[in-house]
Amino acid sequence: MSAASPTLGQTASATFGLKLAPSLQNPIWPGKASTVRVQVNDEVAFLNWLRSELPEARLQESASPGKIFLLTNLPTSKLRLLAQCPAVTFIDVPDRVAREEAYLQNADFTVNAVEAVHVRYPQLHGKNLVVSVKENPFDASDIDFKGRIVPTSASAGGATPHATNMATLVAGGGNSAAGGRGVAWQSQLITSDFARLLPDETSFLRAQKVSVQNHSYGVGVENYYGLESQAYDAQVLEYPELLHVFSSGNSGIQTPATGPYAGVARFANLTGQFKTSKNTLSVGAVDTSGQVSPLSSRGPTFDGRIKPEVVAFGESGSSEASAVVSGIALLLQQVYQEQHNGALPSSALVKAALINSADDKGQPGLDYAAGFGNVDALGAVQAFQERRYFSGRVGQGEKQQFSITVPPGAANLKVTLVWHDAAAQPTAVQALVSDLDLTLQEATTGREWLPWGLSSYPHKDSLALAARRKVDRLNNVEQVTLASPAAGNYQIQVAGYHVSPEGQSFSIVYEMEAPFTWTYPSAGSTLKSGQKNRLRWQTRLTSPETAHLEFRWAGQTWQTILENVPLQEGKADWLAPYSAGVAQLRWKTSAGEVMTSEEFILSPEVPLQVGYNCDDEVLLFWPKAKDITAYQVFALGEKFLEPIATVSDTLLFLDKQQQTALHYAVAPVVAGQTGLKSFTLNYVDQGVGCYVKQFLARQLVTDSVLLDVELSTLYGISSVVLEKRDNGTFQPVQAPLSLFRPVFTITDPKPTPGRNEYRLKLLTDKGAVFYSDLEAVFYTPPAFIQVFPNPVVAGNDLQLVSSEDKLVQIQLYDYAGRIVKELWQDGAIKVLKTDGLKAGVYLVKLLGDSEYKVCRVVVL
């Protein structure tokens, strides 16, 4: 045998390592039992081998697809033996404990131009589409999901705030508040359990018509193509319209411990092997400034592929970012359905639109932190609306071309190619199976441009290098961009470099980016008057570097509000005036260039309150807002808030027989349009009764009676009278009160020693009378002492009430004058034990400072 030839032991060792997931290649501890997931190529041969060679192992379950089995009670010392079974193709880790990766802190739909889609295309809301949120159950009682939840067995568990937040971002109905509206706010919701890390059954997802599934969870840093990665890729081939959206993870500062990038800090730290799948979409996080979060997990994958493909806003991490992108994907599916008689698009086409619309973030060009950039919902939707997409199919060595025309003045031309690739084997060196090549050609000159690519060499400096044009042999996503393209005709060419005999289908999306675009505000946006608003725009202008920002009310004179703002930042904060109306903004450069926004609304927010909640009627009211003459009131209907009244006053009476809803909101009407809605309130939960919110004694035992009163409103009240019970009837304590504010204190100038019972009597302008609940006060003048119960049965506690609520001495005398009990106690109510006392008459004495009080007690 030559020195270069491997020995049998070396071959077995190589096979052993090749067939094992990285975490299973650690040193083996004898005697430790393991659970593993095993993929085989011959089920019968494997079962026969298992009975013969590993009889102690237990076959717990069989899971599809791909002849996958779960083995338990397997000694770790036998992993090498299991790997040597000819029928075994790969041994992977079982289901790990998935973890929710972040909680919702703040939602800002202007970062990804979702707000612009909502105001420009109000008909796009995801209706009749179904999204699955795979993690823990979300709160099915949340009013933002009312009437749109598809019940399943997975929804039976306890709801978590994280799952509820993710579901809200994707598809919240906005019933609770403006912040409760998700991206695809009319879509239906279904939950799925992330205890199973393999994909849900395809037949189940098809039957429930799920077209997008959001995955905002992770299991720790893993970077290899395993059985879960393979299963997700295989499922998308089986169900091509289904888009899986994964959060990249919040481990961006971690260093991988295994794989080709082990030891390379802050790279290759996706939190789950399933996120390295090719036919799914991974999403990283940017903050409200559009900067990639340091905690957002980065690529590359084990074989150098680009992950995450895109980023989106997630203040607390990539969980939120994934949910936002899932919602945008639903809007794209709706646009396509409307164009194709209800048919769903391939998820490759949706993925291409999301990637192609993305705006560059992180370092210039493509990178492993932001992928292809920050998703632009408006750009993606308009690409579908304007049908700027192609689908095709090529065989080995074949080419297909598509012609496009670039208009004058375009700042950037962008073309993205995506295809669903066949599932790879976990033992493969790289995951790509079919390889297509994208190129862009100028029709008149024949000049050609290749797609962008990154260095995948496992060194931090190499991974941080700028993207360069190159032939891509790793990714099933390729993108060509061309800055300042000359106007004219171009050819998009797709070639089959390595394709299976049946050919390879693909999707293409393209766009011509403008030099400057306002993204917030856009036509119909509603900004907050009297508050700071973050303005957003996209610019590809390189000069000038700064500009002045000007503001005007519609049709009036422009006024400068910000000077020398850096245009490349793409954002600026503006404190809007506390007024309402239609307004515009514009940038003005030193060269005289002007970029004017479309008209938008400035609107105040008006907090809704409950005036009273009586048996038949509810009063809602709110403060008057400047420049507002009308208000729209909403009630929660079957699924969403619905307008019920437009009023010029700042209050509304609700007849409970006519209005059965419990939840209401109000918004000012600005220039004939609905302004910012208030938070939605349930009038039953506001602690407001029939005018009286609070009627409480300041002290239950006291030497002066003070009753604190809070009325929900003074509106409609003609008089308020304090009444006290006297011999079974209530009598006025004093004349009716003159009220100037709803919170006040009332007193009884002549209380009776002992228990006093009070109530408020309210008379309305309409002659109706309402009463508060009873409130009792135990009045104890300075020389007063009372004991109860009296008589008391020996052995029961005797309670003493007096005006002395500080520490006093208590003495109990029998009728012979002897002290039979003595103790010290504080508090308004003291307790004296009567254990061991004989029946008879006793005297109780309280000694405080220089005075004392005496009372007679009968013991039975």
UniProtKB/TrEMBL annotation:
PROSITE patterns: SUBTILASE (PS51892). InterPro entries: Galactose-bd-like_sf (IPR008979), Peptidase_S8/S53_dom (IPR000209), Peptidase_S8/S53_dom_sf (IPR036852), Peptidase_S8/S53_subtilisin (IPR051048), Secre_tail (IPR026444), TagA/B/C/D_pept_dom (IPR034058). Pfam families: Peptidase_S8. Signal peptide: none annotated. Residues 126-373 form the Peptidase S8/S53 domain. NCBIfam families: Por_Secre_tail. Belongs to the peptidase S8 family. This is S8 family serine peptidase. It comes from Rufibacter sediminis. The lineage of its organism: Bacteria, Pseudomonadati, Bacteroidota, Cytophagia, Cytophagales.
